[in-house]
Design goal:
Layout: H1 3-13, H2 17-32, H3 36-46, H4 49-54, H5 60-76, H6 79-85, H7 87-94, H8 99-115, H9 126-134, H10 141-151, H11 159-165, H12 174-188, H13 192-200, H14 203-209, H15 216-230, H16 233-241, H17 244-256, H18 262-278, H19 280-286, H20 288-296, H21 305-316, H22 320-327, H23 331-345, H24 349-363, H25 378-389, H26 397-405, H27 410-423, H28 427-434, H29 439-444, H30 452-465, H31 473-485
């Protein structure tokens, strides 16, 4: 009996419930032990309609086996052939009430698009795109996530219809709405034209309006997505011009006066931190309340706020313009820097690490791309030197940093080396290291056990110092030798024991 005849017999047996499990397993075995080319010919010759009928069975095992068979069939047939011959079936499967069936369908659509993006064309297959987009509301997380991935990467001419039909998510739960918002932000980030399409269909305004929700986690998800959108100049311009940004600043003001607003406050701080990093001068000058709120966060008794404040403070201060704008807040800013220094010396590990990272951002100049094309403003050099001095009065700041670099905990030590790297980006920093007793010997010591990442970081620091004018000729030679040997060089010493003769 030929494979086609066997396949036909097995599919015929599917009509009898008592034979269905055996028949489905027989089909799987037949396909597994037949060459892919011949198996594809068998499937296309006889069809899959009788297998499709089994997905409507009441028996859960039958449904799962049927999905397994369909998955196997679609794996064997070339994706472009699936798109050409089984598109009606795919639509049916995407709309099916049973989760395993929808899982098979959306994976097939994903495979088709990943293999040949033109296999599903617009407008011929627009219904498929719409059906997938609407699965962002699916109760199954895996299906919804796959729908987000697919819908975020469709042909541009599919989006007018897809976005229109995806608005059903507006009436779903908060999780589904966030899925739709994520797609909108992904699409909007591609071009100003697609962003305008999203605004014209009301998505962006609806996102902002949902910040009035009582669901704090939902609001925080929206803030994160809006921050991503605001990284694009046209996204930021829209939020400013239609009043949304000002409205969000007002929300921040209200949270400052709300003792129960801690968790939501962290979401707003992260949002404004991201935006202020991108547009430091404009935002800080126009909305000083943002930085004032950030500085007040150092005195908050809410332990959920302090880590976010440290992270955001560092992010804003990582650019040259951000440093100058923050410094304009005078004593309030200086006091905040001193508090970061205190946290480096007297805090639990998590806060200590975050404080070290924050301080390294404030001191570093190379994190700003502009530092590679423009001379460093002399004011930044003077400011960073004073900020570093505030780390410790007694002992000196460089000695304090030396001590932290020797901390046995890897995460603290790594963060301390990042700060050291930031310090060594300045001439004043090189001088401090050169005059700190034992610091160079510590850096050149290869016997200390470090992880690969830290060994590379230490090597970069030594390479930087090897070109410095702060050291004498002998020290420079030792530094250069270390550089020439590479970050992972290990000395091997052979000791030969010799007996002394009488």
């Amino acid at each position: 009996m030929s494979n086609i005849e066997q396949y036909r017999v097995f599919t015929k047996n599917l009509q009898h419930e008592e034979q269905r499990s055996q028949a489905l397993n027989d089909i799987i075995n037949l396909l597994n032990f037949t060459s892919p080319a011949e198996a594809a010919s068998v499937i296309q010759n006889v069809g899959i309609s009788k297998i499709l009928q089994c997905i409507n069975a009441n028996n859960k095992t039958h449904v799962e086996l049927s999905c397994e068979v369909l998955k196997k069939c679609f794996e064997i047939i070339e994706p472009c052939d699936v798109a050409r011959q089984y598109i009606t079936y795919l639509m049916y499967l995407l709309r099916h009430e049973k989760v395993p069936v929808r899982q098979v369908a959306i994976e097939v659509v994903y495979k088709i698009l990943m293999t040949n993006s033109s296999a599903l064309s617009v407008p011929e297959h627009i219904d498929i795109f719409v059906a997938v987009a609407q699965l962002v509301c699916d109760k199954d997380v895996a299906i919804a996530n796959k729908a987000i991935l697919i819908t975020s990467n469709l042909p541009e001419n599919a989006y007018p219809k897809v976005l229109e039909e995806m608005q059903i998510a507006f009436n779903c739960n908060t999780s589904s709405k966030c899925n739709a918002f994520e797609i909108v932000v992904n699409i909007s980030s591609k071009s100003p034209e697609l962003f305008k399409l999203c605004t014209d269909q009301g998505y962006i305004n609806f996102m902002v309006s949902e910040l009035e929700s009582d669901d704090i986690l939902y609001q925080m998800n929206i803030l994160e997505l809006l921050a991503q959108l605001a990284r694009k100049p046209y996204g930021m311009n829209y939020l400013v011009e239609n009043g949304s940004f000002k409205q969000m600043v007002q929300h921040l003001q209200e949270l400052r006066n709300n003792p129960l607003g801690g968790l939501l406050m962290t979401g707003y701080i992260k949002f404004f931190g991201t935006v202020t990093y991108q547009y430091s001068k404009e935002i800080i000058n126009e909305y000083p309340l943002i930085v004032e709120t950030l500085l007040e966060g150092f005195d908050s008794n809410d332990q959920t706020i302090l880590p976010v404040v440290l992270d955001t403070f560092g992010i804003i201060g990582s650019t040259l313009e951000g440093k100058l704008c923050l410094a304009a807040f005078g004593s309030k800013f200086t006091q905040a820097v001193e508090k970061v220094g205190e946290m480096i010396k007297n805090s639990p590990t998590e806060i200590k690490v975050r404080a070290l990272i924050c301080f390294s951002h404030l001191i570093s100049v190379e994190q700003d791309p502009e530092s590679k094309t423009k001379p460093i403003d002399h004011r930044v050099t003077l400011m960073t030197r004073e900020w570093f001095r505030s780390l410790s009065k007694q002992p000196a700041s460089i000695e304090t940093l030396f001590g932290v670099c020797q901390n046995p905990f890897p995460d603290i030590r790594s963060s301390a080396f990042n700060l050291l790297d930031a310090v060594c980006q300045h001439k004043w920093g090189e001088d401090l290291v050169a005059n700190c007793a034992g610091f160079i010997e510590f850096l050149l010591d290869r016997t200390l056990d470090y992880k690969k990442q830290l060994m590379e970081l230490k090597y970069d620091i030594i390479k930087r110092l090897s070109n410095s004018t702060a050291f004498d000729a002998n020290t420079l030679m030792r530094l250069q030798t270390y550089v020439d040997q590479g970050p992972f060089y290990a000395e091997t010493t052979m000791q030969v024991a010799m007996e002394e003769g009488d």
